C-alpha cells in the first residue's frame, strides 16, 4: 500500500511496515504513550506505575546531584592546582586536528573522565586539568536492560531533562518490534533519544563496561543473573536501579533458593520485606566487590509486590575493604520476637593504621535470654543504612513541586514521607502486635508504646514497610521490660509455664516504664495527619502474567473478569470463545464448585 493510500487507522512500524491502530489500545502514562496489542504478546503491568514514577523522581534528583558534585569537584581541583597551572591551554599543544578540544590521543582518556567525574575520588582530584573540554560534564546515558514495551525508556526520555540517550534492550523480537513502534509513535523527541536493540542484556552490559551513568534492571522475577554484568556497566558514581519481584523467595518461603540466587538465607518474620531489601543490597555489594567496586544506597523501598533499590556505584580498592562492616548475620528467636545482629567484620585502629578483622561472636548464647528457646540464623544482610536521608528529602521536594507530572503522586509521596521519618541506622524492626501475641495480652496503642521507649532514653520510629512496624535502638530486654510493666496494669490469663510468654512474664522488670505521653511519640507526618499507607487504587492490583502466556479463566484473580472478557471478545470478534483453549475437565469442575 502506498503512503498516499494510508488511512488514519494505519501507521508504520519502526521497520517501515504498516499496522492497523484498531488492533491496539493506546495507553498513556506520564508524557509517554504506548500501543498495546490485545494479545498478551509484550509484557505490561499497570501496577508498575508506582515503580516508574519513583524511578523518574530519583533520576531527576540524580542528574541534579551529579551536576552539583561535578561543580564541587572542579572547584577543589582548581584550588589544588593553584598557580601550578596558570593557563591550562598553554600546557597542551594547540593541534589543529583536535575535535572539540580533545588531543589526538585523548579520546579514550576523555571518555574515562566523563564516566568518573561524579565519583570525586582523591586520586582524580590530584590530576592536572588538561584543556577546557575536560571541565564539561557529559549528559548522562541510561540503559534499560529489559525494556519490553519501552514505556519506561520513553518516560525517561520525555520527562527527565538532561538525558542524552536511553538504550532499551530486550532479547524478545516481539518486544523489540513493539518498542520501536512505540518510539516512533511518541514523536521526534523519543526518536532522537531512545534506541531499541535486540540483545541479551547480560552480554550487552559486559561488552559496554562503565559506559552508562544509569542502569535500570526491572526483570520479571529475580534480578540475580543480571547483577554481575550490571555492576560492571555502570560508570563510576553512576546509579544502578534494581527491582526484585520474587518476594516468596526473598521473604523466606524458599530459603535454599534464596541462598542459591542471592547468597543469603532469609528468615520468616514480620520484618521479612525489609530483610528482602537488605539481602538484595548485600548481593549487589558482593557482585560489585569482585571488581573493586562498592555501593552506596540512596533509596530502598518495598512497594506493592516487589522491592526496588537505588544505589550509587564507585570504584575503590581501599573503600571496598569496609564491606564486612556493613554486613551482619541475624539471630531470630524461635519462641519470641527477639532478634540480634552479628556483624561480619570489625576494625581496630592503632596509631594511624586501621586493621580489618573478623567480627566478635557469638552475639547470642545457644538459648534466648528472654524466653529460653533456640535461635534461627539468617543472612548475611546489609546492615548499614539503606537510605540517604538528604537524597530522600530532595526526591520528596521534587515530587511535591511537580505533582502533576506523576500519575502515582499520592502513593510515591506517601512512601517517601514515611521513608524520610525512618531511623536510618536501625536494621529491621519489631511488630507491636507480635509482641502482644507472644504475651497473650491486649496491645497498647502505638503512641503509648513509643512514649515508653522515648521516656526510657531510646529512639523509635515507624517504617515504610509495615504500618505496625517500629524501629528502635532499645535492646530487647528493655522492650520486654516495657511490656512487663504494661501487663502489670493490664493483667493477662495464666498460660502454660513452658510457653515463651510465660517465661518472659515470670521475670520482674528491671526498668520501670513511664507511659506518659512523650512529645516525639508522633512523627511530623502523623501529627499533620498526612496519609502514609494508602489502599490499592483498584481490584486485581498486583503482578500480571508473563508475556506470551495463554490467558484463561484461571487468571481471573490476576486480571479480573472484565479484562478476560475483553481478550476473548477481541480474539473472536463476536464475544464467543470457540478459539479459546478449553481448560481440562478437572480444573473446570473445580472452578465451578468454587463459584457455587
From TrEMBL:
Protein name: tRNA (guanine(26)-N(2))-dimethyltransferase
GO CC field: nucleus
Keywords annotated in UniProt: Metal-binding, Methyltransferase, RNA-binding, S-adenosyl-L-methionine, Transferase, tRNA processing, tRNA-binding, Zinc
Pfam families xref list: TRM
GO molecular function annotation: metal ion binding; tRNA (guanine(26)-N2)-dimethyltransferase activity; tRNA binding
Name of encoding gene: LOC107776095
CDD domains found in the cross-reference section: AdoMet_MTases
Function of the molecule: Dimethylates a single guanine residue at position 26 of most tRNAs using S-adenosyl-L-methionine as donor of the methyl groups.
Region (Disordered): 67-136, 562-596
PROSITE patterns referenced in this protein's UniProt entry, alphabetically: SAM_MT_TRM1
GO aspect biological process, one term: tRNA N2-guanine methylation
First-level EC class: transferase
Annotated Basic and acidic residues bias: 112-136, 571-596
The EC number(s) this enzyme carries: 2.1.1.216
Family that this chain belongs to: Belongs to the class I-like SAM-binding methyltransferase superfamily. Trm1 family.
NCBIfam families the UniProt entry points to: TRM1 (TIGR00308)
PANTHER family hit by this protein: N 2 ,N 2 -DIMETHYLGUANOSINE TRNA METHYLTRANSFERASE (PTHR10631), TRNA (GUANINE(26)-N(2))-DIMETHYLTRANSFERASE (PTHR10631:SF3)
Chemical reaction(s) catalysed: guanosine(26) in tRNA + 2 S-adenosyl-L-methionine = N(2)-dimethylguanosine(26) in tRNA + 2 S-adenosyl-L-homocysteine + 2 H(+)
Species: Nicotiana tabacum
Amino acid at each position: 500500500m502506498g503512503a498516499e493510500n494510508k488511512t488514519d487507522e494505519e501507521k508504520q512500524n519502526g521497520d517501515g511496515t504498516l499496522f492497523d491502530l484498531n488492533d491496539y489500545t493506546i495507553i498513556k502514562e506520564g508524557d509517554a504513550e504506548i500501543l498495546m496489542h490485545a494479545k498478551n504478546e509484550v509484557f505490561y503491568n499497570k501496577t508498575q506505575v508506582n515503580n516508574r514514577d519513583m524511578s523518574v523522581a530519583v533520576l531527576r534528583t540524580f542528574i541534579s546531584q551529579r551536576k552539583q558534585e561535578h561543580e564541587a569537584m572542579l572547584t577543589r581541583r582548581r584550588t589544588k592546582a593553584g598557580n601550578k597551572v596558570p593557563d591550562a591551554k598553554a600546557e597542551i599543544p594547540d593541534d589543529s586536528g583536535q575535535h572539540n578540544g580533545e588531543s589526538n590521543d585523548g579520546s579514550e582518556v576523555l571518555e574515562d573522565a566523563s564516566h568518573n567525574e561524579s565519583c570525586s575520588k582523591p586520586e582524580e582530584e590530584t590530576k592536572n586539568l588538561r584543556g577546557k573540554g575536560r571541565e564539561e560534564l557529559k549528559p548522562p546515558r541510561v540503559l534499560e536492560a529489559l525494556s519490553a514495551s519501552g514505556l519506561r525508556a520513553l518516560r525517561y526520555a520525555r520527562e527527565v531533562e538532561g538525558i542524552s540517550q536511553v538504550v532499551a534492550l530486550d532479547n524478545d523480537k516481539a518486544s523489540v518490534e513493539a518498542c520501536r513502534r512505540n518510539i516512533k509513535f511518541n514523536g521526534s523527541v523519543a526518536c532522537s533519544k531512545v534506541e531499541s536493540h535486540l540483545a541479551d542484556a547480560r552480554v550487552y552490559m559486559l561488552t559496554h563496561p562503565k559506559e552508562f551513568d544509569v542502569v535500570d534492571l526491572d526483570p520479571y522475577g529475580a534480578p540475580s543473573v543480571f547483577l554481575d554484568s550490571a555492576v560492571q556497566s555502570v560508570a563510576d558514581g553512576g546509579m544502578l536501579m534494581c527491582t526484585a519481584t520474587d518476594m516468596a523467595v526473598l521473604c523466606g518461603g524458599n530459603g535454599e533458593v534464596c541462598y542459591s540466587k542471592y547468597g543469603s538465607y532469609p528468615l520468616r518474620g514480620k520484618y521479612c520485606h525489609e530483610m528482602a531489601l537488605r539481602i538484595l543490597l548485600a548481593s549487589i555489594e558482593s557482585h560489585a566487590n569482585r571488581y573493586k567496586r562498592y555501593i552506596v544506597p540512596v533509596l530502598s523501598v518495598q512497594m506493592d509486590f516487589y522491592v526496588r533499590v537505588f544505589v550509587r556505584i564507585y570504584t575503590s580498592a581501599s573503600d571496598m575493604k569496609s564491606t564486612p562492616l556493613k554486613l551482619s548475620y541475624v539471630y531470630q528467636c524461635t519462641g519470641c520476637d527477639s532478634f540480634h545482629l552479628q556483624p561480619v567484620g570489625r576494625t581496630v585502629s592503632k596509631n594511624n593504621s586501621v586493621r580489618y578483622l573478623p567480627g566478635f561472636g557469638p552475639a547470642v548464647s545457644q538459648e534466648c535470654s528472654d524466653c529460653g528457646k533456640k535461635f534461627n540464623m539468617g543472612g548475611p544482610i546489609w546492615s548499614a543504612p539503606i537510605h540517604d536521608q538528604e537524597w530522600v528529602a530532595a526526591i520528596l521536594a521534587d515530587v511535591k513541586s511537580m505533582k502533576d507530572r506523576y500519575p502515582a503522586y499520592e502513593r510515591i509521596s506517601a512512601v517517601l514521607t514515611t521513608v524520610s521519618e525512618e531511623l536510618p541506622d536501625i536494621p529491621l524492626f519489631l511488630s507491636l502486635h507480635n509482641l502482644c501475641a507472644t504475651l497473650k495480652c491486649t496491645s497498647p496503642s502505638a503512641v503509648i508504646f513509643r512514649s515508653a521507649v522515648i521516656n526510657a532514653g531510646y529512639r523509635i520510629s515507624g517504617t515504610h514497610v509495615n504500618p505496625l512496624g517500629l524501629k528502635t535502638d532499645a535492646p530487647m530486654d528493655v522492650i520486654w521490660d516495657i511490656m512487663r510493666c504494661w501487663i502489670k496494669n493490664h493483667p493477662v490469663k495464666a498460660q502454660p509455664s513452658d510457653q515463651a510468654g510465660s517465661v518472659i512474664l515470670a521475670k520482674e522488670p528491671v526498668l520501670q516504664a513511664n507511659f506518659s505521653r512523650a512529645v516525639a511519640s508522633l512523627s511530623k507526618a502523623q501529627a499533620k495527619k498526612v496519609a502514609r499507607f494508602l489502599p490499592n487504587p483498584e481490584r486485581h492490583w498486583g503482578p500480571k502474567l508473563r508475556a506470551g502466556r495463554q490467558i484463561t479463566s484461571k487468571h481471573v484473580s490476576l486480571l479480573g473478569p472484565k479484562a478476560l472478557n475483553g481478550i476473548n471478545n477481541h480474539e473472536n470478534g463476536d464475544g464467543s470463545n470457540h478459539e479459546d483453549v478449553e481448560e481440562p475437565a478437572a480444573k473446570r469442575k473445580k472452578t465451578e464448585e468454587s463459584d457455587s
